[in-house]
């Protein structure tokens, strides 16, 4: 049994100290996000809203009586969990007739995304179309079982919740304070919020800041980098139209008129245009992979079912020995996505996990 370590909060502090400029600003927002989200049912996690609640501008400065603490309202999470409650940040749909047309197909799969949906799970628009279905998330989490995992694009928390069940600690990043608050709300509903460190940060800056912290103590710094065992990448694919494919890397060097769409047949026999890693956001999917590998060799990369397999194998072209394992994520007769396991996560390469 691996011992639980509780110093992830220290990681955020190390990063703040290491960078001190824009990164530390974003990390102070992190503190706001981790301390105060959902302190009322309508406020967002942003610092401004939180400060307004504590220092309203219409306060009479001559009135020296101690200010009353704002009363926490009971939301979907119920009593005792108010500080994690994000009720009111986005609609909680229960009646199909209230769901916008373009979200209907996702709403009909709500219990697949979160088996506890009806208890009060919250998703924003991007969450509806990109959350990993719970059973798929559980399967990936089993494969990624480790001490510390970094969920680089946590969204509304589907994967982070699953990782919290198989990993000692989860560091969950997102650039959206709203999505981060929704992820924490959902994690609280599953009772795993204490195992996840929610960090308002973009993965690229986070990884860069991490590199500035020495792995071992130096004469000038006692701060050492916390070991991250696995990085999980589930980045934006460019929205629901990803299935229409995109010009591959080779194709993008051609003029638009020359660019042709390569069609491929997936295991269901459906034909789709191939998705290129060039369409990954916020940077090219190949570059994103390299950033993750700067942290650890053990990377799990969640990609569209029509992803170009040649591009995936090219990710490790500079290593003649390493293999990537591509897992098809099926739900019933439907192929949903691919998870690509690298380093010690791939079958046959487990021995290299701790390298
Ligand atoms: P889908 O193909 O859009 O949904 O996404 P579905 O219900 O299979 O649609 P259908 O019309 O083919 O029936 C399938 C799965 O891919 C989703 O459940 C998400 O887990 C994942 N997914 C979809 N998008 C658009 C994204 C994305 O942008 N990023 C990530 N990381 N995952 C996504």
From TrEMBL:
Gene3D superfamilies to which the protein is assigned, alphabetical: Vaccinia Virus protein VP39 (3.40.50.150)
Sequence ranges of Basic and acidic residues compositional bias: 52-65
Ranges for region Disordered: 22-65
Reactions catalysed: a 5'-end (N(2),N(7)-dimethyl 5'-triphosphoguanosine)-ribonucleoside in snRNA + S-adenosyl-L-methionine = a 5'-end (N(2),N(2),N(7)-trimethyl 5'-triphosphoguanosine)-ribonucleoside in snRNA + S-adenosyl-L-homocysteine + H(+); a 5'-end (N(7)-methyl 5'-triphosphoguanosine)-ribonucleoside in snRNA + S-adenosyl-L-methionine = a 5'-end (N(2),N(7)-dimethyl 5'-triphosphoguanosine)-ribonucleoside in snRNA + S-adenosyl-L-homocysteine + H(+); a 5'-end (N(7)-methyl 5'-triphosphoguanosine)-ribonucleoside in snoRNA + S-adenosyl-L-methionine = a 5'-end (N(2),N(7)-dimethyl 5'-triphosphoguanosine)-ribonucleoside in snoRNA + S-adenosyl-L-homocysteine + H(+); a 5'-end (N(2),N(7)-dimethyl 5'-triphosphoguanosine)-ribonucleoside in snoRNA + S-adenosyl-L-methionine = a 5'-end (N(2),N(2),N(7)-trimethyl 5'-triphosphoguanosine)-ribonucleoside in snoRNA + S-adenosyl-L-homocysteine + H(+)
Listed Pfam families: Methyltransf_15 (PF09445)
Composition-biased stretches (Polar residues): 22-45
Gene Ontology CC: one annotated term: nucleus
The organism's place on the tree of life at top rank: Eukaryota
Gene Ontology molecular function: RNA cap trimethylguanosine synthase activity
PANTHER family linked: S-ADENOSYLMETHIONINE-DEPENDENT METHYLTRANSFERASE RELATED, TRIMETHYLGUANOSINE SYNTHASE
Entry's family note: Belongs to the methyltransferase superfamily. Trimethylguanosine synthase family.
Name this polypeptide is given: Trimethylguanosine synthase
